Structure formats: structure tokens, C-alpha cells
Amino acid sequence: MLSLRDLGALASRYASLLDRPSHEFELRGRTFGGREAAATPQLMGVINLSPDSWYRESVALSSEAAIRRGQLLADAGAVLLDVGTESSLDYAARVAPEDQIRKLMPVIEGLVARQLLVSIETYHPLVAQAALRAGAAVINFTGREGWEELLPLLAKEDAGLIVNFVEGAHVRDPRAVRLSHDAIGDLLPYFEERCRLAERAGIRRLWIDPGLGFYYPNLQDGAVRIERQIEIFLGSFRLHELGWPVCHALPHAFECFEEEVRCAEPFFAVLAILGQTDLLRTHEVARVLGVVRAMRLFGAGRRSDPFRREGFPG
Fold first, then answer.
1. Number of domains the chain contains
2. Do the domain assignments include residue 304?
3. 255-274 residue pLDDT tens
């Protein structure tokens, strides 16, 4: 059972990293990273264009529905919208890059026309290139291969990059992932190499995503996967030593939450916020924003006049 002793031991062991801020950068008029993001994480809403996507509430089967959902997510508090055309489920249909581009173009253009920031989840450099030309601001790259093609495209467009941990060629071709008792320590060399490659290519806006949400063949046991995810969420602040903000895709953990699965992402948001995550990728923007607001209230009374009525932070 997770306890205050566990949190205290983690904080004590890595105390020198607790207050280390990530790089702060601007992306199309919005500021990301830095001390403020670690204190109050920003939210990235999800739009799935694949009917195979597990989270039904995020699925939009037409361009109009996707644009409508994007506006609703932004109104609910999302500063970035992550759009995907292919589910990461192992049994989901594969979607050719050309078909992904065809689906994405009107959605990106419609969201950008509303002055919304768009991220595209893909492992195809060809899809990334088309998305950037259409106005996408960020590529959420879920592949381990294709970096040589991807990085110059991002640098040319001055776009952002989410660097995912992927064991295998890409999210749809995962290999067994081997982590010791210190998962963050195991992940650090991977991200250090990827971040330095991106920096040398001229990328100045990136996030690190160390999550284990993909369908690795040796993490099919939900209990094992969830335990490692909790460990990584709580230890995310250690990745700030690489200089960049951390992004987490909040999981569903159906094995624990069952018919209350829509409560899972708010629960994991608590752990991710304790771990100083900067950007939370969520299907449940309104619910997770409530978590962020509530956690910000702790200690607020000690920092202000307790008799003055305060509004809730946004």
C-alpha cells in the first residue's frame, strides 16, 4: 500500500532534484515548462479519430465531431489537443500513412482556425510532415525509428516534440521492456540520448514522456504494469535533470477501476502531480482540472489571509 513513508523516502533520496525546474519555452504564444508548470501542470486533451480507440468518450468519427470535441476540451481547460488516427491497441486496425493524412488535414485546419494548439500522435515521419504543414504545433512521436527524418522537420517548423519511451520500432510493434527496481534510473539513459539528438538538431521545445501505457508483451499483467506506472509517476521529477518538462499520458487501469474506469485518470493525476509532472495528457480534462485545482489549495491558507475569500485557481 502506498504510504507517506514511501513518499518521504523518495523525496529524501532525491532531495537535490525536487526543486530543479525544467526549461521554460514559448510555443505559439503559450508558455510551457519552468517552475510554474511543475507547480501547476497543464492539460492536454485527447481526440481519437480511430473507431478502435478504447476510450469511447474521446472518439470522433467525423471532422466536424473532432473539431467540436477540440473546442469543448479547450473550453474545459486543455491548452493542447492531441489528435490520433490509429489506436495503440494490439488488435486495432492499422491505418496507412496516406489515410491518416487524409483524416487529419481537415481536423488540424479546423482546430488551428479556432486558434487552438494541436499535437499529432504518430510514428510516421510522413504523417508528421503533413501535420506540421497543416499547422500542428507539436508531434507526439510514438516511435523509436524514424528520428533522422523527423528531427529536421520539427526544427524547420520550430515545432514541439513529445519524446516517448518506446521499446520496439514503434507503439504498434513493441518488444518486452526490462526495468530493474529503479525504473526511472533505467529510463534516464534512453531519454538523455534522445534529448541530446533533438537538441543537436535544433529542437528547442520538447517534453519527456516515460509512461508504460503501450501494450508490451511482458506487461500484460495489470497489477505489474500499474505498480511500475505508479513508481514512474511519483519519480518523474528526477527526469528534470535532463532539463526538459515531463508529460504523462494518464492510464485507465481497468483492472482496478472496472465500471468506474473514468475515475482512473483523476487518480493517476494525483500521483503525477506529486511527481512534478508538467503536462498531463488526459481524456478527462474537466475531471483532472478539478484535481489540479484541489491540490493547489493545499497550503494556500498559510500563504494568504485566511479570512479573505479566495476564488478557485484556473
1. 1
2. no
3. 777 777 778 899 999 999 99
